[in-house]
Amino acid sequence: MIVTSQKKAGNIFGQLSIERIMKDHSFFISSTRFFNEAGEIARFTGRFFKEGSKRNQEFEEFIRQCFWVGYRSLPLVGITAFIMGLVLTIQSRPTLVEFGAESLLPSMVAVSLIREISPVITGLICAGKIASGMGAELGSMRVTEQIDAMEVSGTNPFKYLVITRIAATTLMLPVLSSLANAISLYGGYLGVNIRGQVSWDLYWTQVFNSLSFGDVVPALIKTFFFGFAIGLIGCFKGYNSKKGTEGVGRSANSAVVVASLLIFIIDLVAVQISDLLGLT
């Protein structure tokens, strides 16, 4: 009986040891994959700046990508911004009325939208639409060997496909964010007048008086980094897609996830820098 109990205990401890080893091994593999991909993204970024500094860029393709990224995304961004400003105003009104600060509603809505909500939401919308589209498009070109054919024909696919898309997203996202700011503030104006009565001139006077340099400029600058991150991740995932059509779906999905995560990280860093510079 004692020998049997010892054997059972040994088997239990052996199983626990094996499970512990497997967990440590899977964690090691996940960490290795993370750092490998981070290194590949860094190398991809370095190649972008290297190729982008050369002459004879694909200007026509860049304009086409600006149209696709900016104009085609404007309806979705505009509708979302309008609803966002309207809902924020309606939801904030009862709290301010409770404290007798209803007159501060336009100022509070303006600062909240311009500083944080509008740029981040615009970035997330573009991450879902643009990064996934780029990942799927370039991924399908990779698995169907169209990129390989461009290399064989003497065309630089990186310059034609990657640089134009990253440059377009970097340039157009601040434009989309600025338009989203204006549309969301207009939605806020309608929200203020649903249960109150504020004139057009008074509303915009309060909005502009509440905003300062530290509210507008840092929010605008970080949208350039949002656009760069969206274009970079979308192109990286698609350009390095593998495993056939299944890899295309994975590239599009992971492009959205990684780009959205980078937007939050960049926003956190931007807030900390603004705080250190005394702009908040």
SSE arrangement, N to C: HHHHHHHHH
Let me know the largest β-sheet. none
Q: Structural class, please? A: mainly alpha
Number of strands: 0
What would the average pLDDT be, to the nearest integer? 84
Number of DSSP helical runs: 9
List keywords for this structure.
single chain; 280 residues; mainly alpha; 88% helix; elongated
Written overview of the protein:
The protein is mainly alpha-helical. Helix content is 88%, strand content 0%. The protein contains 9 helices and no strands. It has helices at residues 2-52, 59-71, 74-98, 105-143, 146-152, 157-195, 200-210, 213-239, 244-276. The chain starts with a helix and ends with a helix. The relative contact order is 0.14.
Give a nutshell description of this structure.
With 280 residues, this protein is mostly helical. Helix content is 88%, strand content 0%. The mean pLDDT is 84.
Layout of helices and strands:
Layout: H1 2-52, H2 59-71, H3 74-98, H4 105-143, H5 146-152, H6 157-195, H7 200-210, H8 213-239, H9 244-276
